[in-house]
Amino acid sequence: MIIPRPRIEAALERALERAPVVALIGARQVGKTTLARKLADRAKGTLYLDLERIADRRKLEDAEAFLQAQAGHLTVLDEVQRLPELFAELRGIVDDRRAGGERSMQFLLLGSASLDLIQQVSETLAGRIIYLEMPPIGAEEAAAASIDIDRLWLRGGFPDSLTAVTDEDSYLWRQAFVRSYLERDVPMFAPRMPAAMIGRLWTMLANGQGNTLNSARLGQGLGVSAPMIGRYIDLLVDLMLVRRLQPWSGNLGKRLVKSPKIYVRDSGLVHALLEIGTLNQLLGHPVVGPSWEGFVIETLIEAAGPDVAPLFYRTADGAEIDLVFEQAGKPKVAIEVKRASAPQAERGFFVACDDLEIENRIIVGAGAEDYPARGGAKVRTLLSAVKEIREILKSPFPA
């Protein structure tokens, strides 16, 4: 079963119209290749090269001549971080075509490590490239495929996990996915980092889903230094497996929490790391609340789009907002997340909203109804919250 991804597909098509090079980045197995091949099937003459295949890499031994021969067609280069020396060749080809007044040379780069790829590309393709991040399947896409929210929450948004025949099949897929990252990707992207240690840290982060980062405590638990913990987390963030949610840091004359909160981005991976295979096991596990919080936060960050800053707010006095969206330098939306069918925000949420002068106050629960709440807040289902966030934070530039 292939679940349609209309939003990212439309965004990718727009990007290809606007720039000669587009980089589509995302974790492994998130569906980048499927989407690229779908576009390739529609664009006659598209060339697809998987740079993990030796045969495809050999075609690029004389990259300039080979790629110049594809003029007028889209060229897809999958796992492009395998050949970083290729970026200089792409720059030359793009500039040559521009100098001749042509824009017929287009490249779609697929990569599974964001920072590593962006750092390499930015040195050579600045001004010639658009970046898009492809997330796992989201709530709207799952709903359109008649997949309910709890199933998406339990299994996560990786297509093969979400569409598995049974929960057991999904769980086994995610277990293998975790092993694959530790056995293959960590040694490839960070050969000097011990994969087993990073695996233990990944599990610790899942156990502490949504906690503020305490590198010293994590380092003590693993027997390594706090700076080393930072480097391990950098890698997991780079692989788009972990999110650092930064604190709001404006000047209000209050003592604010300054450490980021750490989330394993995909809820299904949280559950696999903690050996949770069924919804009943999840509902009875201590991580149920933090897991739901991380799932909702990741969903709403994707809904808000790349031009909005996601933050959290917490003071030493206990005023707290789970998720703040800041737009044009101003806090615009406050989100409280509760795993309850009739959720209620605590006093600290409203104090924090008053601190930041936020009028858009949304409480996302696990119920099936939307209704007004006290303090100017609104209780929303996750799907309703996605739609409302998009409306409040809509870009001034039409799609």
Automatic annotation (TrEMBL):
Highest rank taxon of the organism: Bacteria
Chain ranges of the DUF4143 domain: 183-339
InterPro entries from the UniProt entry: AAA_14, DUF4143, P-loop_NTPase
Pfam families from the UniProt entry: AAA_14, DUF4143
Segments forming domain AAA: 20-141
Name of the protein in question: AAA+ ATPase domain-containing protein
